[in-house]
Please model this.
Amino acid sequence: MKYFFRKGIVIVIVALMILTLPIGTLLTKAEDSKTDPYEVKITSGIEGKYRALKYIPVIVEFTSLEKDFNGEVEIRASAQYSSTYDAYSKEVSALQGETAKVIIPIKVLDGSSKITVNLIENGKVLYEKKSLISNGRVGEANLFMGVLTDDATSLSYTGSISFDNTQGVTGVIEKVQLDKDIIGESNLNIDGLDAIIINNYNMSNLKKEQYEALNSWINKGGTLIIGSGANESKTISSIDKEFLDIKSNGAKEKNIKLVDDSLNLILSSLEIKGGSLKQGTNEDPLIYSVKRGKGEILVSTIDLGLEPLISSKDAGKFLSAILADATGGLFNKNMNGGYMPGYYRSRELTRNIPINEIVGVKSLIVVLAIYALIVGVILYIVLKKLNKRDFTWIAVPLISIIFTLVIYFMGSSTRVKDVVLNQNNIISIDKDGKGTAKGYLGIGTKYKGNIIVKKPEDLTMNYSTEDNYYYGNPEEEEVSNVLRVKTTYVGNNAYFTFNDSAALDMKSFDVVGKEQVLSTIESSFSLLDGKLNGKVKNNLDCDIKKLLLVAGRNIWDMGSLTKGEEREISNLSTTGSSGLQAYSDVLNQKYYDAKWKKDKDLKSEEFKNIIRTSAIIGTVSDEILINKDIKLVAITDLPVEYGVDFGNKSVSKFDTTAIVQNAELDFKDKDGVYNFPDGYFGSTIESSSANVHVDDYNGYLYGQGEVVFKFAVDKNIEVLELTVKQGVDRYGYNGGDNSEKYIYNYKTEAYDKFTMSQGYEKIKDLGNYINNNEVKVKYVVDDMKGQSMIPMITVKGREK
Model:
């Protein structure tokens, strides 16, 4: 019996082993043989390079192995905190076995590198793949440049160019090859590029979408360089004249001195509508400039990729000179994604709804007190006296209805519709009144719920946040499953989806490209001893709430002008000498000082919308590069129609619009002497110790070491009087200066010390200290001895 029992146990064990082993093997083989239904390849950047905190093109190539695909490719990236994510998607269809390719521009925060790519059909995620953004980040001090050419090797010299920017930081050019597809797909694909060169390329290959993308990119601050010369038939003759109205009157070979060497080059004779000569002479023009928004189109009269130029030492020097403006403020522009003070003021604009004054608590208390008095006391006394107390049940509801209507109408000015559209616009117009509007939009809903925003078809519109860094742990970064905003690209259009948005939670957007034609403001001004004189007439179709004249860093505030009003200006003093951004801060501080001290009526005309006006002036400062230009800045309520689509929802729309145009300011006095105001000729940093920080925004110098400022006076001015002055902070205050100060003596080739004991130093023996209309001032700073401030100069002179 025991024998059979043992035998049975052995048989059972063997059977279990036989059954178990094959099953495990089969399962393993099945698992090993299982393949993904999709083959997916993910690459990021342009040739792997990208600019941090700008849009990065992510290329997704996939093949559906088992069935046709008809859905969307979605990319998820972490938002500022790991609790939410932003999504970017594009619809795509692919037959079974067919490889589809999509380019989706996304934003990834500094400190974050992980993204998730999903293939979605009918709202269901069919496939998910995680990926890392490549390590090809372009440094903040480097110029990120794209090249569109039929001969890439001819421009290889551009990769060896280095330069020093205004912060004294050395940068290099990081170059990538472009093609028309990545440009035309979306202007956001080239968002991170600082400059683009189109040389020896048939521009007839570019279609409407490419030109629109380039135009939007330029308006946002890009520098486009177009070569001509020997290959002008491919560039100038083939360009879309709606994009750039240019023509050539032929090309000829000529021996010219480009920088240091004399070279035989082929020069085009060009005519450009709205263009001005930037480099060269009238006889030998080299570079023409066309300003467009925050950016610029530069047209070279020579081909930038032919001999003998590319083998000469002048090649790099010439391109460096062309790119001088683009490289000058590069470090500040890209530091923290370019989120400078003006950027945050624009975000402030979009968040605050400019409704009329909210009903005060005191007003409501007074109304409720009157209601209680009438219902509780007066009504009782009156009805008792009339012996009609039975009418109480009629009188009380009637009085309640009356007071309800009173409160309703008291709050009518603060009531909004389904969607709140808060538009803040900047329009820079030319002498003919033509310009392009840049809008900062705040969009919110009256109630909590979903909101879909569809961008205008022909304009560039981006969702904007203050995010600049991922605060999660990079090692443990996981893309959240809580959506903040989803951007869906449909061709060159897009729409934005916000789920479960809180009531009046304003979402910020930037929109560019709306062309405008306006009447211009008539003006004529002269300057005498720093005082403004002249006249101005408001020809706009609206009132001007505040009108400013800006000359360099100097501001004259002419107040408000009604539509059609003409006004004489006499001996008006400057209201600021530290630039528009500083004046914006002064207005802002003025409001809060009055609010805290309670010594002024905040309901008066003086303080009406002052915070909003302050914010848009600060934003104008960030948008408009003024330098030595003379500009009129008019703050108005002029409405702009961008055509943002909200479906059938009703919209409450608010507009504040800054109109910027050129103006004429005569600096000459009766004796023909030019009197330039303080700070009109700005400085650049020629050299700086590593431990010195120059704070242009606040006007201070920090650290220990020396810094050399170079001031350049216009070449056509003979300097008669030069004064070096102590700088002021952004509020216009002079906080004292404890630095050691020197001015460069060109004759002795050494620095001479001066004291500036009265806050200024009038320079004698000008011939020793001015060379080619340039002046060098050196400050030796030491925080241990006290603060130091950025110097400025005042110049008097005659025209040469």
